[in-house]
Every structure is written in structure tokens, then in C-alpha cells.
Amino acid sequence: MTFEPIRGVIAPILTPFNDDLLIATDLYIDLAKSLLDAGCAGLAPFGTTGEALSVGIDERISAISALVDGGIEPSRLIPGTGLSNIADTARLSRACLDLGCPAVMTLPPFYFKEVSEDGLYRYFSGLISAIGADARVFLYHIPPIAVVGIPPSLAARLRADFPEQIVGIKDSSGDWENTQKLFEIDDLVVYPGSELPLIDALQLGGPGCITATANVNATAIARVVELFGQGDIDAAQQAHEAVRQTRLTIQGYAPIPAQKRLLAMQTGDTRWANVRPPLGATSESDGKNLAAALKGE
After folding, report:
1. Residue 152 burial (CB count, 10 A)
2. d(C-alpha 259, C-alpha 216), whole Å
3. What digits encode the pLDDT tens for the residues 40-50?
4. Which CATH superfamily is domain 8-252 in?
5. Hey, where are the domains in the chain?
6. Active site residues
């Protein structure tokens, strides 16, 4: 059976915290609904942008359950489940699939560095076995953060040997040459981890992108995909240039706390500025500077 990907923009949704740093479920559900209303085709809870590695397994399961109970269709969720061992990653992945999520997004085991490709292959083979035959996994390649990566050769090998379970990859390498090689793998769904190469990815048949800045710029990014799908390539490229500039402006700050500060300013709810250690909150003054820069002031 061919896996049908979510087509369009997927937001790796920010995780809101109350002042006691427990997850603010009310804000989480509200943001999820607003992002989908703003044009996101799907959401990726607990990716890098969601401060995933600062959130426990049971917390993640409870939060995703709250989204589903709050009216978010699980078919639109691709949760991040990557931890540093098979047992925990399989447990979290199994819980998300049982909630009705079509797939999960999984980091390589990132603690041990300079491991062999065969070692990574054995890890993912064991993970699939532990999750079960109905596992549906997006590999998550983000070497700037994880250091340990998933090279195209490994992605191709896993896809060939586990065609029902390894359905795609999110490439957050920032290396377009690497992304192009992934598109050469038969029937592998490829999402770039940014809107910067979105037009190029769409031209290669990609379904869209998974991008952090969809948290604050979803409608504009979704418009690029819409215009491209309508065949209006010139308009899509013009719209793309605007979203590129927004992305590059936000990248000049610490993107996770900066976007949270923007949401705090937009909603009036100061809880949005909260981040868990070791991250630090973006100051109000820096938030105002960023907002002004985004307006071109």
C-alpha cells in the first residue's frame, strides 16, 4: 500500500508552558486549531521547535492525546518520537500510532557519535520490530543539532528493506544537494525542514515542507504551495521570496523563544514566552525589535 503524505505546509508546533513550566494544554489546542485554520495541512508535535528533548515521554503522550480530545484530527499529526534508545522511541511511537496518527518522525540515536551506517541500520531495524509491522516512520535528518545524521545511502537502504514502514524523511540539513539525493529514492516522501527551498522541492514532486516559521507565518507559506499547485509559478516565486525574507529575519534571533515571544505579543498571553531550560526566553525588547523588523520598520 502506498503511503499518502500530508500535502502542504506542516508546522512543527511550538509547545506552550505555564509559569510552572508544565504544558499549557489550553494554549496548545488553541494554537493547533489556529494553525490549521491559517492554512497548515498538518502539524508535527514535539519536533525540535517543540522543545521535544525537554519534554518527557508521558508528557508528550498526554499532550498529543489532549490535541485529539480537543478536536484535532489525528490524521493531521506526525509527532516527533526520536529518543536515544529503541525501547523509549518504540513506546512513544506506538502510543502515537495507537492514537490514530498516520506516522511518526524519528531522530537517529544521537548520543553516540561517529557510529557506522550499519549500526544506524541495525537501530532502525530494531525500532521497526519493536513498534510493530504497522509502524510508519519518517526519518529525521538534522545534523546541525543531532550531529548524527541519516545519509541518503542509509535512507535508500532502509526504504528498500522496509518499504511499508519507512515512508519518508524530513531533511533539516540545510544542504540542498543532500535533499536532491533523497528525492532520487523511489517513493520516499521528502519534506525539506524549511521553506527556503520550497519551490525547488515542489518542482521535484515534493508534497510541501515542515517548517518552524509556520508557527507565525502559516498563511503566507501555504499560499506559495497553493499558487504552485495552480500552475502560477511566477506568482509562487514572488510569494516565496517574501516568506524567505521572513524566515531569514527570524533566523537572526533564537528562533524558538523568539517565535514564542511573538505569540505572547500577538495573543496577550505572557505564558507563550515561557521556555524550558536550558533555553532562555526572548526579552520583550528583543521581541519588539523582531516584530518591527518583520514589518520592515
Report:
1. 21
2. 7
3. 999 999 999 99
4. Aldolase class I (3.20.20.70)
5. 8-252
6. 48, 111, 140, 170
